[in-house]
Amino acid sequence: MPGRRRDAVFALAGRLGMQVIAQHYQTADADFGRHRDAYGGWLERVAPYPALKVNSQTGKDHFTFAQNRQLIALADRFSARTGLPVLHETHRGKFSFAAHVTATYLHKLPELRLTLDASHWCAVAESLLGDQPEAMALAIARTDHLHARVGHAQGPQAVDPRCPEWHVELERHLQWWDAVAEAKRRLGGPLTVTPEFGPHPYLVHYSDYGPPLASQWAVNVWVMGLLRQRWAATEASA
Predict the structure, then answer these.
(1) Strand residue runs (E) in the chain
(2) How confident is the model at residue 2 (pLDDT cuts 50, 70, 90)?
(3) Which pTM does this prediction carry?
(4) Phi, psi of 110 (to 5 degrees)
(5) Bridge partners for 24 per DSSP
(6) Burial of 33: CB neighbours in 10 Å, binned 0-12, 13-18, 19+
(7) Which residues, other chains included, contact 168 with Cβ-Cβ below 8 Å and sequence gap of 6+?
(8) Mean of the pLDDT values across residues 81-95?
(9) Which of 43, 156, 171, 227 qualifies as a cystine partner to 123, CB 3.0-4.6 A?
(10) In which band, very low, low, confident or very high, does the pLDDT at 208 lie, cut at 50, 70 and 90?
(11) How far is CA 125 from the centre of its chain?
């Protein structure tokens, strides 16, 4: 995002009393040296802005552990210097592309903190990860931000989680999200959530020029309301 657009976004958020979670996804160079430099440059560009935290799609799935670790260490140094937390999103194509791979990073890097988007892991594993409970529990314990989107065995986004045919997938994701919220409640730390059902091509359309099968806005608002109601009830009964 060019500087003028960043200025405009943060100025508008300030006028509306909104906090901003900065989103990094742009660094894509397959050459590690150029990738590292571009990633560091992006972090420096966002440093002057009053972001709440940075959600980072970090590294590449084909980089080595040592290379991806350099990028995570770069983000750690940035956070230590600026006070701006960098959370690494579990995302296809990044170092955190699969539950079992991310578990290795979490075991070896005890300070690593995540944005958990388990929908990507469902697509990668072609399952609802029922055979990886240890990896999921470890990721949940290290999560500070949630991307609340429902994935399934053949893709990262259910067409419409309000429909009964997606009940099993919705319930599995709700179990994970509840576990993250409960862990944060016990520790007393803040949890932020982004309902993250995305546009095309995540959102299925009848055809290239036809209407979508669901309203992206309506689904995200529904997820927000569902979690607010669900967690308010949990707090009331605690």
Answers:
(1) 21-24, 53-56, 86-89, 114-116, 143-148, 192-195
(2) low
(3) 0.94
(4) -65, -15
(5) 56
(6) exposed
(7) 128
(8) 98
(9) 156
(10) confident
(11) 17
Query: Distance between CA atoms of 158 and 107, rounded to whole angstroms?
Result: 31
Lookup: tokens for 110: 């005890």
Kindly calculate the radius of gyration of the chain based on its CA atoms and give it in whole angstroms: 18
Task: Pick 228 or 206 by higher pLDDT.
Answer: 228
CB count in 10 Å sphere of residue 206? 9
The span from the CA of 145 to the CA of 142, in Å, is 9
The answer to whether the Cα torsion of 76, 5, 94, 158 is positive or negative is: positive
Residue with tokens 């990860």: 129
Question: From CA 22, how far away is CA 49, in angstroms rounded?
Answer: 9
The Cα–Cα gap between 83 and 234 comes to: 32
Residue 206 pLDDT: 84
Amino acid letter at 196? E
CA distance 207 to 172: 30
Residue 1 has pLDDT above 70, yes or no: no
Q: Determine whether 13 is exposed, middle or buried from the number of CB atoms within 10 Å of its CB (0-12, 13-18, 19+).
A: middle
**What is the average pLDDT score of the chain?**
95
Residue 211: count other Cβ atoms within 10 Å of its Cβ: 9
Largest CA distance in the chain: 52
> DSSP for 156-225?
SS-S-TTSGGGHHHHHHHHHHHHHHHHHHHHHT---EEEE---STTTS-BSSTTSPBSS-HHHHHHHHHH
Cβ within 8 Å of residue 182, ≥6 positions away? 234
